[in-house]
């Protein structure tokens, strides 16, 4: 098994690299597995009926949703924890504090050690595609396998709104394959602010 990425030669539309072609990495999308298939497979692996597995799945989802909206970080068995949070601007004085500082609401998932280890061990295959759609190179990753910690500031700051970061980012790098901005770690554009866990 491997994570498949594509590096597509893309014309940058914004920022200091506007008008230049750059190879931009993005994840090769897989088919979304429907809930019914996941439940069927879980029922087979556990030896319980699909009806029982469906009832357990639904109940767990309701509990996670209810407790998350009460401000808890909720364990998702075998995977990690989930909580709600926001991305917000920072202000200089208490008089400026208002709900309008919130720019986005977020779902924050923190994987457990087993999931992080699995991701760290999984090889990454990169297919390079030029501007004409032709495959020009295939690369197997030689990266260090570092796994991002969502509880830490993307800029290496603190945790849960500890230090300010820049939302919006510079030009060129992208998460998910669009051109232009990177959320939470660039140096130009966007609003100064931090992540806040609820």
From TrEMBL:
Region Disordered, residue ranges = 137-198
Q: Which residues form the HU domain?
A: 1-123
Domain of life of the organism encoding this protein: Bacteria
Could you tell me one molecular function GO term of this UniProt entry?
DNA binding
Keyword terms, alphabetized: DNA-binding
Q: Where does this protein have compositionally biased stretches of type Gly residues?
A: 155-198
Instruction: Look up keyword Nucleus and say if it applies.
Output: no
* SUPFAM superfamilies the record matches: IHF-like DNA-binding proteins
Keyword hit for DNA-binding: yes
Alphabetical list of InterPro entries matching this protein: HU-HIG, IHF-like_DNA-bd_dom_sf
Q: What is this protein called?
A: DNA-binding protein
This chain's source organism reads: Segatella copri
